[in-house]
Each structure stands twice: as structure tokens, then as C-alpha cells.
Amino acid sequence: MNRHALSCLPEIIVTNTVRSKFLDRATPPHISTLIILSGLPALSMTLFLPSLPNMTEYFQTEYRVIQLSVATYLLVNAVLQVVVGPISDYYGRRRIILWGIVFFLLATLGCMFAPNVEIFLFFRMGQAVIVSGMVLARAIVRDLYPAKQAASMIGYVTMGMAVAPMLGPMIGGFLDEAFGWKASFSLFLIIGSLTLVLANFDLGETLPTKRQNIWSQFREYPELFRSHRFWGYCFVAAFSSGMFFAYLGGAPFIGSEIFGLSPSTLGFYFGLTAFGYMSGNFISGKWSVRYGINKMIIMGCFIALIGPTGPIVATYAGFTHPLSFFGFAVLMGVGNGLIVPNATAGMLSVRPHLAGTASGIGGAILIGIGSGLSALAGSLLTTESGPYPLYFIMLICVIMGLLCSVYIVLRSRANPLN
Predict the structure, then answer these.
(1) Residue (of 176, 67, 172) closest to 120 by Cα position
(2) Which of 318-322, 337-341, 354-358, 396-400 comes out lowest in average pLDDT?
(3) pTM surpassing 0.85?
């Protein structure tokens, strides 16, 4: 950070001698505020998943249509990840976060009162604006703390992001059974409103200095695009997450139509998968420094490979218990928990001075591929097809991720700078 930037920072941030005071905008935001800002986007993606079958009936449409509420949300999410960072560099973190929450609340009301599935899907895409909280929570940490402390703080925020999708389907399943599918969106309104109040009183502006030109960050893209290892890490993370997003798009159908699970039971099984992801994150945090990110990625790919191969073998062998699918999906979660953090670290380390740009592009690619695979899984699954389309999509994803990880290793040996 240059001397001019330091002079623009509040003294409490530069010296780091004043601790955060909760609900005091003159001090750094409390870590719980950043965790909530990061967790709400993850919650909004998974909370209503157990309700998809009932929403299909409510709107009198087909499952593949209502499943677009996952895919289109992810697509808009991907686009916003690219632009939110540069916009916040110009207008400030606080303003973008607050307006993002307001638009999320308006879009939630639109979802609840939509008269047909087309209008519902339109407002569901609008809910993706809440991703600004997740993107800018990490930027705020970088604004406030030196590198080593920032890495630790981001780790806490990431764990918060893992808890939200783990609890979301469980809560959503129970809400659906007790009150119907709109109850999940009512909970969005409640949590979103509380988050808006919290952010307003606890989150001050942390941007060190505004950029003179909002487009300056985009001019840095070509240098990053020339790095082969950057693309390798991007696609490892993208295919790994794509497998998970395909699972999110297809598992509600398999759980309800193939295994006949109730929404609450389906939510419980979703939670097991997220628990696997948290476990993988914990292992990454403990062992990545010792073994290196490339070895951890390859290890994660082999563990994740069990996720689709196990159900394929079990189905052909005649096992019909839900654990023959969801049990193996836990290992898919563990593998993803190893792959994604290490691949993300690889993306950011290829060109350290372009870490912010790399984070935005990598996140957009990850979510973009994930949204496409989620839509594909939902469109191919029918009662006649059974679960096989989802199984093979997941299998292809993990194989592609493994090939990309091998390419990274070979490229690192041949040209470690590119």
C-alpha cells in the first residue's frame, strides 16, 4: 500500500491498536458482521432447495423449469462477482453492501408474491445481488488487516460460509413441511432485514482510497489471462464446484422422486454433504502448508471421485437406501473441501499483485460453469432416466478436474513462473 493510501486510512486501521467495538462504525466491523454478510448469500442458495418439488406443483410447471431458480441465480451471481469489486473500489464498500441488501429484500418480496413461474424466476435472479456481501466481506478484511492476519480472518469468514449451506436445507425442509415453501422466503426477509440493520450500525467505510477510473481494474485482465497455471487452477476449482452445483440441481429430484424423502429428511441429507465440505476445509487448513496445494488438490480429486462412482456401483448392485447416494456425496463434499480452497490459493498466487482481479475472474468462472451444470442436471433428470444423468455428470466433472490438476503439476515443473 502506498503512502498516499495510508494517509487516507483512519488511524485505528493503520495502527491496528483499537479493537473492534460492536455496532460502532468508527471501529473496524465485528467479525460476526462479516461472517453474516458472507453467509447470507450461501444461505439464499440452499435454504429453499427441499421445497423445489412443492414449488413445482404450486406453479404448475415442470421440475426442470423450477430448477432454473438455482441455475439462473448462480449465473447472475457469477456476473456480479466480476463487477462488484471494481464498483466498490470506486463507490466504497459500505454503500454497495447496503444497497445490495435492500435490493435483495425487494427481490425476495417479488419471489413470494409472483403470480407465475416466469416472474418468480425473474425476482429469483434479482436475489443474487446479495453476493455483494460475500465478495466485499473479503475485500473489507484486506482493507483492514495486514497479510498474515487477513488470511486468518478470511479463514473464519470462510468457515461461516460453510455453516450456512449446511444448516440451510435442514431449516428449509422443516419450514416447508410446517408452513409451505414461502416460509423460507419469509425467513430471507427476516434475516435480510436484521442484516441490513446490523451492517448499517456496525459497518463503516473501509476503502483506503478510491480509484480515479472505475475501469482501471479491468485493464489488468490480459496479464492474468496469459498465465497457463491460472487457467489450470480456475478449471480445477470450476469442475470441482460444478460437480457440487450439479448435485444441488439434481439431488432434490432424486431425493423426492427416486427415494421418496420428505422435505425435512431431504434437508438433513443435504446437511451431511455440507458437513463433509467443512471437514475438507478443516483438513486443508491443517495440512496444506505441509503438503503443498498441488498435492492437496490431487488428493481431493481422488476422494471426490468416490462421490459419483459409489452411487453408480451401488445402484447397479441394487441398493436403494438414500445413503447409497447421499452417503457417498459426503465424500464428494470432503474432496471439494480439499480442492476449492487450495485451487483458489493457487489462482491468487500466480500473479500476487493481481490477486483481487484473479479472485473475481476465478469466482465468476467457477459459478458460471456451476450454473450451467446445475441447469443441465435438472433438465436431464426424469422419472424414466432415474438418477444416472446426475451420476455421470458428476463423474465427468471430477475426471476433468483431475486432468487439470495433473496439467498444473506438469506446467509447474516446466515453467513455474507461468
Answers:
(1) 67
(2) 354-358
(3) no
| 73-125 confidence digits (pLDDT tens) | 888 888 888 888 777 777 778 888 999 999 999 999 999 999 999 999 999 99
Identify whether the C-beta of residue 260 lies closer than 8 Å to the C-beta of residue 320: no
To the nearest 10°, report the CA torsion of 117, 121, 127, 128: 160
What is the C-alpha to C-alpha distance for residues 333 and 346, in angstroms, rounded to an integer?
Answer: 20
| Dist CA 209 CA 96 (whole Å) | 15
> Is 93:139 a contact under the CB 8 Å cutoff?
yes
3-state secondary structure 321-387: CCHHHHHHHHHHHHHHHHHHHHHHHHHHHHCHHHHHHHHHHHHHHHHHHHHHHHHHHHHHCCCCCCC
Q: What is the pLDDT of residue 244?
A: 85
What is the DSSP secondary structure assignment for residue 20, as one 8-state letter? P
- Alpha-carbon distance of 50 to 385, in angstroms, equals 21
Angle made by CA atoms 280, 281, 286, in degrees to the nearest 5: 95
Side-chain half-sphere of 355: how many Cα atoms within 13 Å? 12
At 246-283, the pLDDT tens digits run 887 788 888 888 888 887 788 788 778 878 887 887 78
Residue 343 to residues 43, 292, 350: CA-CA distances in angstroms? 23, 11, 11
| CB burial of residue 178 (10 Å; 0-12, 13-18, 19+) | exposed
On whether the CB atoms of residues 271 and 163 are closer than 8 A, the answer is: no
Q: How far is Cα 297 from Cα 303, in angstroms, rounded to an integer?
A: 10
User: CA 413, 415, 417, 418 torsion: positive or negative?
Assistant: negative
Domains plus CATH for the chain?
Answer: 17-215 (1.20.1250.20), 216-418 (1.20.1250.20)
Residues in contact with 219: Cβ distance below 8 Å, sequence separation at least 6, in sequence order: none
Taking alpha carbons only, the member of 165, 87, 79, 6 closest to residue 371 is 79
CA 142 remoteness from chain centre = 19
What average pLDDT does range 14-18 have in this prediction? 42
